[in-house]
Amino acid sequence: MTIKVFKQKTIFSFFILLISLSVFGQDIKGLRYFMQGNATASSVPYGNNQSAGHYVKSDDAKIYYEVYGKGSPVVVLHGGIVGSSLEMGQLSDSLSQKHQVISISTRGHGRSEMGNKIPSYEQKAKDVNAVLDKVTKEKVTIVGFSDGAYTGYFFAEQYPDRIEKLVAIGAGEWKKGFREFNMDYKSFSAMDELFWKQQMAIRPEPKRIDEWFSTLSSYYNNLNIDKTILGKIKCPVLVMAGEKDQNAPFDTVIAAYKMIPNAQLSIIPNAPHPAFLVNFDAVWASMKPFLNQNN
């Protein structure tokens, strides 16, 4: 199936219907995260679980989130572009044993709408705040990966009274122009066709997918994240990354760690960007003491 389908409205609608029939109902547990391969995902269909799912309106978009477990609240934020709540499944499974887990599909991902605002980290932080207004009055811990970690940085800076601590996985200093983004659906769908078929079936606005990629590319190409944001974060932050993270290179992670006033550092040896998918035990062993310590 190629991108040409998107130019044929009738065929496109029929295509989405067929995929929907295979994704929902009895086959709901067949959802996968991006480039999952033969790895085992959580048995919980995070990001598409009707029994745990809710919506909240945040400015111009409906944001989808799920709630699991009981205890002190932890917000789980997945990665960007190809990210999904399911990729965070093992973390959510473990956290929900002792915490209330609030798993959010950030705008434009999964069941959350795109809206018409720039999907900036300021806006995504505002979306998280809208979810929290519905779920809890307590301070939260945020566990974010990549895009979700950057959202966590901005949330901590914008809403210091609502956050207890932050675990930021794979998110370093971001210098404008350090990478060039020119993304499109055709390229990404070729990397994992089944993942994208499933995601297109659950997204509320699948026909806007190329607009979404274009908007994200423009935003990322003009983004700069440095001490002006990171230096204002007051809560404790565990800055974590894989030693061989290709998206947040080692030196950018160290730079972010040095900019954040109350930061701890954890580097997972020989691990790439999604360190928790490659070496969950090491990631969890680093996170647990941080989550359990008193500020």
Automatic annotation (TrEMBL):
<keyword id="KW-0378">Hydrolase</keyword>
<dbReference type="Pfam" id="PF00561">
    <property type="entry name" value="Abhydrolase_1"/>
</dbReference>
<dbReference type="InterPro" id="IPR000073">
    <property type="entry name" value="AB_hydrolase_1"/>
</dbReference>
<dbReference type="GO" id="GO:0016787">
    <property type="term" value="F:hydrolase activity"/>
</dbReference>
<protein>
    <submittedName>
        <fullName>Alpha/beta hydrolase</fullName>
    </submittedName>
</protein>
<dbReference type="InterPro" id="IPR050471">
    <property type="entry name" value="AB_hydrolase"/>
</dbReference>
<dbReference type="InterPro" id="IPR029058">
    <property type="entry name" value="AB_hydrolase_fold"/>
</dbReference>
<feature type="domain" description="AB hydrolase-1">
    <location>
        <begin position="73"/>
        <end position="174"/>
    </location>
</feature>
